[in-house]
Amino acid sequence: VKAGARGSFAWYDEDADRQSRDRAEIASDLKHAVENHDIVPFFQPIVRIDSSELVGFEVLARWTHPTRGNVPPFVFIEIAEDSGLIGPLGMALLRKACIHAAAWPEELSISFNISPIQFREGALVENVQKVLKETGFKPSRLTIEITESSVIDDFEIARKKIDAFKALGIQIALDDFGTGYSSLACLRSLPFDRLKIDRSFVTDISEQRQSQQIVSGILSLASGLELDVTAEGIETADDLTYLQGLHCSLGQGYFFEKPVPAEQISWLLETEW
Ligand code: C2E
Ligand code: CA
Ligand code: CA
Ligand code: CA
Question: Ligand 1 centroid vs 61 CA: distance in angstroms?
């Protein structure tokens, strides 16, 4: 509506008004959803690119709203951050994910997203540790995914948290690598274990010369820094073949599998990878 409403402030205002009403409504529904456990973890396979072996899953939050249907995570995560719900939401999700994953084979790990505001919470490390204790899920099977927005404000505070996670045996991944302004400064300043190459560089890579050069550069950088790499957004066999040629170690994307509910994992584990 905004784009087509040139000069029409009435339209614009109405739209903005409706949007903020929507947000307020979603925010109050979100509180109930967190309390009622209506927000659930889905799991997207992460696969070793050379052997197609399954190594684990990224945990992705899903909310089916009673009247609105699926609310996308980029909408409700932001609202959760603004309304102080992100902490409880995140820990409830992590607890559910760990309970499921504890029943899967030992060698499978899970990768869990922590948003910038969530990362800044004082008790984050203790809360994560508490969930691991309660669920009996091994810290060495958990990776925390953060983006550079979580850390650029203050590398020293970020380093303390990352060190505390690593002291517990948890791994740390830098998510959406290459999309921010300070990706390289982050790598230089903080002890990451893994990079996730943003899907904007991966999808269609076999036809995008710029992406090819960028991804191959990221891979040699990562190998020099002894970082593991996951390519996100592998959608086609061509994407996969190209990344195989570059010897990228791990991959994730619709070509392998979409994010699926926990109930489908046991079935997934029986199929060939
Ligand atoms: P992200 O961490 O970069 O997650 C990857 C997103 O890419 C997911 O979107 C996933 O469904 C999507 N994706 C995976 N493979 C493909 C592919 O081949 N093609 C395309 N086009 N997309 C693919 P989703 O689940 O909608 O999540 C969006 C963002 O919301 C996530 O981006 C993450 O930043 C945030 N998010 C999701 N779940 C959580 C959560 O539990 N906690 C926090 N803090 N953030 C979350
Ligand atoms: Ca992620
Ligand atoms: Ca990502
Ligand atoms: Ca993202």
Answer: 8
Task: Indicate which residue's Cα is closest to atom 22 of ligand 1.
Answer: 233
| Ligand 1 contact, 257 CB (< 6 A) | no
What is the secondary structure of 27-76 as a DSSP string?
A: HHHHHHHHHTT-EEEEEEEEEETTT--EEEEEEEEEEEETTTEEEPHHHH
Q: Which amino acid is at 18?
A: R
Q: What's the CA dihedral at 222, 141, 79, 123 to 10 degrees?
A: -100
Q: Tell whether ligand 1 has an atom less than 6 A from the beta carbon of residue 233.
A: yes
Q: What one-letter code names the amino acid at 60?
A: L
DSSP E strand stretches across the chain: 39-48, 54-65, 69-71, 109-113, 142-146, 171-177, 194-197, 228-231, 250-251, 260-261
Nearest CA to 168 among 144, 139, 135? 139
Is 13 a residue whose pLDDT tops 80?
A: no
Instruction: Give me the pLDDT at residue 269, please.
Output: 87
**Residue 248 CB less than 6 A away from ligand 1:** no
CB 113 within 8 A of CB 175: yes
How much is the ipTM here?
0.97
